[in-house]
């Protein structure tokens, strides 16, 4: 029986709280689906700074290397915000992890199933048309990673700068991922840029157009990012796959999350060419709700679903996890972030219990 080794990195804030619910799901898969899953936990982020003096200890990196996939909670929080920025959890651990494993392709699926339209802050007439978007975000390039950044003085005037830069090959490889994913969906791809202002966006648009010649079945269009943010809330059903640079994808994916109902619902997969991946909620450590047992564990549980889909090719398990989550939502179980009247308010741990109970009733065909 194949052994599936998962490096578990709970991190900070609500990270450990939602990870507890993730373990419940993995336990059900272990017991009821007879899977051989081995988890090992490693410190990352603020907790790692506290315990090891560094946000991404060598032992954590080695642990990830010796696993088949990484399951990540969240990092960061007020406690570490006064450290030099490059030592902080985000820039000291999460970004280096993405870079180290070459996880250039970030997939963030946001969808609305019928029966749970009321989760969305959008008007019913808009969400009743439903939507199912997949945000494909370039994750290890652009303004996030370029070394030409800093803070300096000129004539005693202080200034800071970051540099947006893309190699054409970086745009090509993420574009191929987006086109391939579009082929398996509604064959509709919207590429987002700011080609009316930015050189990198001109190259982006040109390169995506060239790559598109290899995918004649996919309907490609381009939108400027400012317009795209509007179109997404006006007509979310017009979108299928969205392709963005690192920074635009960060912003657009939070928007995709909120139109489904909450950041606590949005999972993500970050993959390299070999299919190795890091799976994490798109949201952060949510210090405002930490320790209250009210965080929504669904983004993490759906990230586990993505892990089984993309790293282990266990599509059926992944489908079952997703359908159980949507069943539980349809039945009205809601954590506080998605609560509405007539719903059944549950805590973080109760949500994990309900989902694992429903999961344990399911079987592989
Ligand atoms: P955040 O995503 O942590 O929170 C934004 C809002 O969404 C908050 O109101 C929060 O309560 C809510 N939210 C997020 N996840 C939720 C969940 N699962 N259930 C219910 N509500 C949820 O963003 P922020 O407040 O801007 O950042 C807080 C910290 O997290 C910062 O240190 C930031 O750098 C870090 N961060 C980390 C990651 C990551 O580790 N991948 C991602 C984003 C932000
Ligand atoms: C995300 C987060 C990260 C990002 C931060 C915490 C570095 O916001 O995963 O969306 O900007 O990529
Ligand atoms: Mn973000």
TrEMBL record:
Residue positions annotated to bind Mg(2+) are 226, 250, 254
What's one GO BP annotation on this UniProt entry? L-leucine biosynthetic process
Where in or outside the cell? Cytoplasm
Q: Which cofactor does it need?
A: Mn(2+); Mg(2+)
Q: Which GO cellular component term is one of those annotated?
A: cytosol
* Annotated residues for binding of NAD(+): 77-90, 284-296
Q: Which UniProt keywords apply?
A: Amino-acid biosynthesis, Branched-chain amino acid biosynthesis, Cytoplasm, Leucine biosynthesis, Magnesium, Manganese, Metal-binding, NAD, Oxidoreductase
Which reaction is this enzyme known to catalyze?
Answer: (2R,3S)-3-isopropylmalate + NAD(+) = 4-methyl-2-oxopentanoate + CO2 + NADH
Q: Which Pfam families does the annotation name?
A: Iso_dh
Which stretches make up the Isopropylmalate dehydrogenase-like domain?
Answer: 5-355
**What is the enzyme's main class?**
oxidoreductase
Q: What is its EC number?
A: 1.1.1.85
HAMAP family noted in UniProt: LeuB_type1
Task: Give the protein's biological function.
Answer: Catalyzes the oxidation of 3-carboxy-2-hydroxy-4-methylpentanoate (3-isopropylmalate) to 3-carboxy-4-methyl-2-oxopentanoate. The product decarboxylates to 4-methyl-2 oxopentanoate.
Sequence similarity: Belongs to the isocitrate and isopropylmalate dehydrogenases family. LeuB type 1 subfamily.
Q: What is this protein called?
A: 3-isopropylmalate dehydrogenase
Q: What is the lineage of its organism?
A: Bacteria, Pseudomonadati, Pseudomonadota, Gammaproteobacteria, Enterobacterales
Gene responsible for this protein: leuB
């Amino acid at each position: 029986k194949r052994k599936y080794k998962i490096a578990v990195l709970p991190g900070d804030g609500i990270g450990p709280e939602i990870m507890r619910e993730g373990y419940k799901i993995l336990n059900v898969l272990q017991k009821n689906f007879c899977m051989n899953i081995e988890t090992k936990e490693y410190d990352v982020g603020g907790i790692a700074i506290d315990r090891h003096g560094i946000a991404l200890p060598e032992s954590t990196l080695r642990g990830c290397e010796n696993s088949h996939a990484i399951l990540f909670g969240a990092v960061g929080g007020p406690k570490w915000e006064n450290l030099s920025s490059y030592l902080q959890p985000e820039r000291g651990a999460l970004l280096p992890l993405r870079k180290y494993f070459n996880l250039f392709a970030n997939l963030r699926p946001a969808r609305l199933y019928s029966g749970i339209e009321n989760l969305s802050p959008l008007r019913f007439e808009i969400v009743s048309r439903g939507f199912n978007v997949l945000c494909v975000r370039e994750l290890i390039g652009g303004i996030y990673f370029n070394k030409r950044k800093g803070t300096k003085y000129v004539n005693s005037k202080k200034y800071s700068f970051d540099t947006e830069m893309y190699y054409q090959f970086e745009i090509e490889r993420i574009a191929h991922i987006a086109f391939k994913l579009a082929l398996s969906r509604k064959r509709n791809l919207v590429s987002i840029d700011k080609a009316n202002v930015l050189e990198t966006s001109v190259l982006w648009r040109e390169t995506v157009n060239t790559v598109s010649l290899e995918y004649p079945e996919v309907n490609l269009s381009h939108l400027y990012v400012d317009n795209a943010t509007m179109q997404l809330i006006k007509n979310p059903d017009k979108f299928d796959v969205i392709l963005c640079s690192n920074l635009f994808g960060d912003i657009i994916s939070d928007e995709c999350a909120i139109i489904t109902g909450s950041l606590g619902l949005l999972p993500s997969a970050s993959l390299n060419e070999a299919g190795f991946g890091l799976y994490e909620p798109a949201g952060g450590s949510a210090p405002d709700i930490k320790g209250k047992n009210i965080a929504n564990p669904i983004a993490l549980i759906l990230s586990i679903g993505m892990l089984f889909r993309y790293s282990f090719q266990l599509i059926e398990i992944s489908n079952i996890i997703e359908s159980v989550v949507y069943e539980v939502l349809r039945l009205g179980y809601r954590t506080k972030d998605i609560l509405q009247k007539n719903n059944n308010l549950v805590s973080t741990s109760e949500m994990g219990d309900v989902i694992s109970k429903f999961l344990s009733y399911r079987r592989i065909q």
